[in-house]
């Protein structure tokens, strides 16, 4: 149960970051902020799936 909540939270955070990333694509300063947030999420919510395409977007 806790694992499902963990995965859900991680997925929701990534989906929001992807949307923000598309919105900020023309603004380099915002893109840098979004990338740093994504790296923090990757650190706090590590994934066993290293082929996760959402993670590779922000590496």
What can you tell me about this protein's structure?
The chain has one domain. The chain is 75% helix and 0% strand. The longest helix is centred in the N-terminal third of the chain and has 22 residues. By secondary structure, the protein is mostly helical.
Secondary-structure blueprint:
Layout: H1 2-23, H2 28-44, H3 53-57
Provide a concise account of the structure shown.
With 59 residues, this protein is mostly helical. It is built from three helices and no strands.
Helical content, roughly? Answer: over 70%
Question: What is the count of helical runs?
Answer: 3
Please provide the count of β strands. 0
Give the end-to-end Cα distance, rounded to a whole number of Å. 29 Å
- pLDDT < 50 runs, ≥5 residues: none
Tell me the strand percentage band: under 5%
Total of domains: 1
* Sheet of most strands: none
Instruction: Compute the average pLDDT.
Output: 72
């Amino acid at each position: 149960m806790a694992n499902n909540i963990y995965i859900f939270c991680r997925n929701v955070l990534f989906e929001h970051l992807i949307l923000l990333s598309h919105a900020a694509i023309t603004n380099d300063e915002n893109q840098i902020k979004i990338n740093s947030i994504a790296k923090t999420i990757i650190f706090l919510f590590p994934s066993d799936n290293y082929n996760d395409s959402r993670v590779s977007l922000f590496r």
